[in-house]
Amino acid sequence: MTALGCNTLVTANGTWQFHRANWIVWRGVLALLLCSVPPCLYTSGLQLTEKTYFISLAIALLIAAVAMLIRQPQTEQLTVSPLRWWMYPISFIIGAVSGVTGIGGGIYLAPFLYLSRWGSPKQIAGASSVFILINSLAGISMQVATNGWLLEWSMLWLFIAVLAGGFIGARWSSARFTHRIVRWITVVVIIFAAIRMLWKYL
Predict the structure, then answer these.
(1) CA angle 8–126–26, rounded 5-degree value
(2) Count of domains in the chain?
(3) Percentage of residues in the chain having pLDDT higher than 90
């Protein structure tokens, strides 16, 4: 619930920043969401032990990072390519995984968009923001329906810090950083988070 709440705050602002900068291709993103939200709703209600959750999340993140390193995006690409047919079943699987791991799924979606050369890194970052936002809201709704509202007021400062950091990150990545920097920051953050989880829970 905490992870989903943080995701929602960050990506709501990120979605707005990328939208203002005209980096979001809404038609493609909404098509993928139609495939991802139903399985996300279902798996958000599953209960995992803390160790199983973090190990599963770390492995999924490492796979995502490796996929992003396999193929270089077209950084000067101004228009997006049509979605490959296999992106729809992939989106369904990502929705299921995001419901289990609680991080919205955009971090899993981005590598596959890179692999298919769908668009530039900033277009992919914008698509990922929308994807995380909607799937996180779906996960929160299922968590509330299943377990009630679990967030406490003591988490308020965490959410304020996350919102401030997310605002700065979204502003820089949508308007100031180059496509290459956006891509490499994403890869480094994913790998760091995954290794840290594995170090703690294995």
Answers:
(1) 100
(2) 1
(3) 7
